[in-house]
Structures are given as C-alpha cells and as structure tokens.
What we know:
single chain; 8-stranded mixed β-sheet; two-stranded antiparallel ribbon
Amino acid sequence: MPALTSFETELRRVVQPRARVIIDNDFSGDPDGLVQLAHHVLSPSVEIRAIIGSHLKPGDPFDPSEQTADNAAVAASTVLDLLGRAGTIPVLAGSNVGMTDPLSPIRSAATDAIIAEAMRTDTNLPLFLACGAGLTEIASAYLLEPRIATRLTLVWIGGPEHDGLAVPPPGSHGPEYNLAIDIPAARVIFDSFMPIWQVPRDAYRQTLYSWAELLTDVRPHGAIGAHLYDALAQVAVMAGNHGLPLGETYILGDSPLVLLTALQSSFEADPSSSEYVTRTVPRIRADGSYDTIPRQGPRPMRVYTRLDVRLLFADFTAKLAAHAAG
C-alpha cells in the first residue's frame, strides 16, 4: 500500500467505512466506467471488496472482440495501477458471454466472489452491488445462491424510462444499452426479491460534464487524470470521424454508482440529496420493455429521477486533484 498523502490521511481520519461495495462494470466499453472506478476507489466511506469486469454485447463498437470481460478486467487493473493501488483490491473477469435464457446461470470467479461476500457473517456493513453494465454476474450469482437476494442491494445503471416519469431521448430505438447486454439476466433480477435501486436512462443522462471542465478539472491531475481524459477524448474523436459529433459534453453515466453508495448523508445514511420514486418492480419482457404486471406480486423498488450532480462531480474533482498533488 503506498504512503497516503496528507489529504488522504486526514480524509481517512474523519471518514470511516460504513458500507461494502462490489463494483461490476464493462470497463472495455464506454470509458465513463473508468471515471466511476477511479472515483469509487478514492472514496474511503466504502470498502471495495471486488472489482468485476463484465462483458459487452457481441460486436459492440467499443470492443468488438470475444474477450470483453477479460479486457474489462485489464482496463480496471490499469486504473488501480495509475492510482497507486495495484494489488489492493481483487479484480476479476466475469463471463465473456451473456445468459442464453433466465434459467441458465454462468458460473465464474466473479459470481463466486459475489456469493462469498454476500454470505459473510463477520460484518454488519451493508453490501451494495454497484453495476454499470449488463446483469450477467449478479443474475448468475442469484440463480446459483438465491439467499443473496436478501443480503445485498443492487444499484443498477440501466433500463429505459418509466411511463409517467420521463420520455425516451430523441432518436432512441430498441432496448436501453445496458439492458440490451443481457436481457435474460435482467429478467432474472427483476423477477427476484432482490432490492433494486435503479438509475434509468433519463436519470443517468443528467450526468453531463463539459469538455472545458474535463480539460481543466481532470486532464491536468496526474497520470490517472490524463488517462481518464484521453479515454473519453478518444471516443469523441472517433464519433466525430464517423459523423456523430458529441458536442460540448460527455455523459459520465456510471458515476451515480459512487453518488448513491459512497456519498450518502451523514446521519440516517441514505442518498438524501438525490430524488427517487417508489415503483412496483416490473417484469422485463423478452424485447427489453417493461411489463407492469409483476410475476411475484407487487414489491417496491427505487427509481431515481434526479441526481445531485453538483455533489458528485465536486467530490470527484476534489479527490482527483488532491491525489495528484500528493
């Protein structure tokens, strides 16, 4: 473990861990997941128990290979190395393919890690599964050990807009991106009794960070800042070269995973500065749409509608700058 900077020493003196987090993300895809990972690792209120690299949908332009989960694990390890945290957190590759149907789990070292952490009896810290990708690993873990459903909370970036709350963005078609990675896995989780905090597309699209801010608040701050900026900029240049200019902002849509787990209120811990509504968990149809008639009878879930972007990004840039200065 590297020596802590004075900033980190003081932060860890006044901030003690009060939750456990398993991070599950498709780090070889949209680099917003790399930003989320760096921010989470720099947040002392959570113990990161494992980092899982998840697969993308076959043929995804971000990584069209057949080893996207393996590549995601490598990308996550690079972030840890640039933060000076190499070897301090287990990094595991999940399955490189999705589930073929809702009854066929795919066992991996990642599913075993989820089960083992959820079934621990030697800690009272609540456990969050923070997922910014498809739900292959958590769905498979649940099918292999259903008891984990009552022993963790899933915080998921994914799913389309809910009727009466928001409308789809212009030009959208087909299932939402993360949902489309593994629809059978989503059907498993939404038919389970697992607590769900969902950040659907209309909410995660609120996390706009301007290129001017990225240039001034991220890029200058050490090797990790340059790495994160360059990964995002590469996407913008590639999109522009294909006639899809991204404009002046980038959606850091996976960062709410940090906001909702690490940046909770001091007393009566909860993500109190963000807003959600309680909805009955819908079923997921085979085409990725919602069916409002649940299989197991009504049960509630959180659907986040507004995110405290000020807190989220102010905290991120403060930690990034202090880490670089150290």
